[in-house]
Amino acid sequence: MSGKVLKFPSPIPAVRQLTSPELDAINRIRFSYPYNFTPLAPRLFDGTIERWSLSKFLDEQEFAFARLDIVDRRGIESFEMSRFYSNVDMERIHIPGELSAVTTAKVIAYLLDIVECEFNYRFELWCEDPPRILSVSQLAGDSLIRSIRAQAKAWEKVKANDELNLYSHFVYAERNPVIGRAVQNAAINRWSSSEAPPRAIIKR
Asked: What is the C-alpha separation between 142 and 44, in angstroms, rounded?
């Protein structure tokens, strides 16, 4: 993979509403946590936090999705580390109309698994002997994402073409603006932001 970013096609495919079968397929995708994809989870008038499912988030996007793509045609239910590059063209992932909405949702789920792995790794550092001291803000959603990006950059200096590198999977996939926003929203709504007050960060 060259790492270059291809330009958008001309004309850009039209934005459309998702169909009921697409929304149903997205809602069937399993997550390890009930993520909230609302942008920064605004509070409603009664104090409750607004919640968006992934299907609602995707249906709200001003971004063109393909009706079907190669992932749909192959019947791939979820992504695995060893086959991610073979099923998604990383040089075209950001282009409108390249991925279907269902495939986009599956990529988002895969990237959130990577963020959760990064959180678990950092949390376990406290259990080492001697324990590593981490601030609560280092476990925040935006901090976890920045850590993944930094590790991808460091890894590329050693193994630039390692297609089994989860960190590289993450940074290439998040070049798709819809994927990047969804992962950031979900991560911050779950683990909060490093810029949030301490009480908000530790609240589960």
From this structure: 23
pLDDT of 82-99, one tens digit each?
888 888 988 899 999 999
- Cβ–Cβ < 8 Å for 77, 90: no
From CA 62, how far away is CA 49, in angstroms rounded?
Answer: 24
Contact 181, 32 (CB under 8 A): no
For residue 66, list its beta bridge partners: 100
Q: What is the pLDDT of residue 122?
A: 79
Given a cut of 70, whether residue 114 has pLDDT beyond it is yes
Q: Evaluate whether 35 touches 51 at the Cβ level (below 8 Å).
A: no
| Predicted model pTM | 0.85
Neighbour-count burial of 176, counting CB atoms closer than 10 A to its CB (0-12 exposed, 13-18 middle, 19+ buried): buried
> Sign of dihedral through CA atoms 13, 18, 24, 28?
positive
**Residue 136 burial (CB < 10 Å; 0-12/13-18/19+)?**
middle
